[in-house]
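Sharing a chain and its predicted structure for anyone who wants a worked example. Both blocks are below, sequence first, tokens second.
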Amino acid sequence: MTDQSPTSVATASALDAYVRDPAIMAEVERLLSGRTRNIRLKGAVAEAFWDRTWRQASTIVRSWMVWVMMLDALTLMLNLILLPETSGAALLLPAAIVLSAAVAAFLVWRKRRSTRVLHGSLTVAMLFMLFGIGLMGVAAGGELYERFLNVMVFTAITGIIIFAVPMRHTVALAAIVLSLYLLLQLQNPLVEARSALSGFFFYFCGVSATVVARRTATILAQKSFLLELRDRRHVAELAEANHRLDELSKLDPLTGVANRRWMRELVGKLWLEASTVAVLMCDIDDFKALNDHRGHAEGDRCLREVADIIRHHLRSTRDCVARYGGEEFMILLCNVTDAEALTVAEQIRSSIAAAAFSSPGSRVAPFVTVSIGVAAGTTGSGEHTPEHLQRQADQALYAAKRAGRNRVMAFNPTTQPPPEALSRFAV
């Protein structure tokens, strides 16, 4: 797997923010539902596209400008060597214009600025560069006159091809170079007006075809971006759905607390750390009698109420409660002493009793009560395994049942019930 650069990570985060915007995604769907040739990015979608592409566009523009500077300097030096002194000197000012425009564009495109500033500066820079190249032809004169004009047109065509700028700037660049070519060619003493017009229409066709190609490339790039946004949304929706399914697979559907599977995973992870924990096994007293007298619907409501009360007494996000059996809950307390665990257990027991949920048929009280067994230990030491600590809490719960129910009992190794008794609490 390849490492992502900070820039790519930031870009991906920005795109994810756009994907979460319903208005942007509605516009994306609208654009993709129509014809490709009619795609026009506006507003927030256009801003999102610029966020995605501006760094690449900046790199291309700056690289192109560097080559223009180098070629301009090289051409000037060769002309100073090869041409007569007066002709070579006349090229200095036009060459300086080209070089200055290229340097200015390079500096502006080094930083992220508004699209208006960047695209406008590029158009203005190209205007001066093309004008400077044209003036070099005028200054050189003779057969070099038309040669420099051809170079001017070639430079513009190259810019149109590689600059991913809005179409209005592309059209403006095409209009600038064609206008300069026609104006300067008509002033060329070695070319007749007819030849100048013929050359103009020749380049007009070539430049127009290049503009159309650039427009097609831009539309395809924008469509690709829209498809990327839609794919990202689908991936995000799938990830969210998977997350919800994963959460649902860990929850008891009736009470909304964790199920046994999630509790086992949580305990397994916790046991890799060094921590003091307590396991509380909580069982509703005479729950079968409640179901028999009031029906399963009322029994379900009782389970939900008890789960809510237990959840209310959890002290932190690391504490957890799970429905471990039909009417049995397992509570995990982290970073807790024996005394604190007993205090939490007693608070849970007394709160459930104080809620006074009716429980006809109960041998303990006319309202719902619970018995709780508590066992505490240390994780990560090997002294206590999760199964060992849970077994101790089960033994403490059994002791609470034998002692009359509706009470909290801590594990006492001197009073261990027989193993077969832990599977039933009907004593």
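Comments welcome. Residues 260-423 form a domain with the Alpha-Beta Plaits fold (CATH 3.30.70.270).
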